[in-house]
Amino acid sequence: MPRLSKKTMFALEAVLDVAFHVGEHPVRSGDITERQRIPKRYLEQVLQHLVRAGILSGKRGPRGGYRLGRDRTQITVGEVVRVVRNLEAETEPSDPSVGSPLAHEVVWPVWEKLRENMMAQLDGISIDDLCRRARDKGLDAPSRPQTRQVVL
User: Fold this and answer.
1) CA distance readout (Å), 20 to 26, 68, 147, 151
2) Residue 77, burial from CB neighbour count under 10 angstroms (0-12, 13-18, 19+)
3) How confident is the model at residue 148 (pLDDT cuts 50, 70, 90)?
4) C-alpha distances in angstroms, 64 versus 28, 31, 50, 72?
5) CA–CA separation, 53 and 98 (whole Å)
6) pLDDT tens digits for range 20-62
7) How many CB atoms lie within 10 A of CB 47?
8) How far apart, in whole angstroms, are the C-alpha atoms of residue 147 and residue 124?
9) Which residue(s) pair with 55 in the sheet?
């Protein structure tokens, strides 16, 4: 089965943290690191890629930090997973010569179909859905009304 990598989990946690804690001021990466116990070396790399993808928006400087790039109902888990998959693909080269014809013609197509089905399901889950699940379990911070949050 496709695995949930550390970077994917960190990315999802970071986006959820921003969704919970953003307010008048952006959410600082140091605060995310502290609250979610995400190693800073992973977090900074993931945050940059999430900004490039438009999932988050970032502001530099002493009053800087991160906000959601758009309303949390419009950001899906599938989008976050794809950002991390692309990031991991940059650092983990694949070798197309690995595997027999049986693997290439039979096993990989089945695996790819499973991955496509999983991604379709993840595309149906929004960050807002995860926030509601966390709230139902008492895991969120006091929530603020969510509006489109764009840093100008």
Assistant:
1) 11, 10, 12, 17
2) buried
3) very low
4) 7, 12, 16, 20
5) 31
6) 998 889 999 999 999 999 999 889 989 999 999 999 999 988 8
7) 23
8) 20
9) none
Strand pairing class (56-59; 65-68): antiparallel
| Beta carbons within 10 angstroms of residue 92's beta carbon | 8
pLDDT for res 87: 83
Q: What is the length of the chain?
A: 152
| Amino acid letter, 136 | D
pLDDT tier, 94 (very low <50, low <70, confident <90, very high otherwise): low
Scanning 100-140, the segments in alpha helix (DSSP H) are 101-102, 108-123, 127-136
Whole-prediction pTM? 0.82
Q: How many Å apart are CA 20 and CA 123, to the nearest integer?
A: 21
Number of Cα atoms under 13 Å in the Cβ half of residue 127: 25
For residue 125, give the DSSP letter: -
| CA dihedral sign, ordered 134, 137, 141, 143 | positive
Closest listed residue to residue 39, CA positions, set 10, 71, 9, 69 = 10
Name the one residue in this structure whose structure tokens are 């911070």.
141
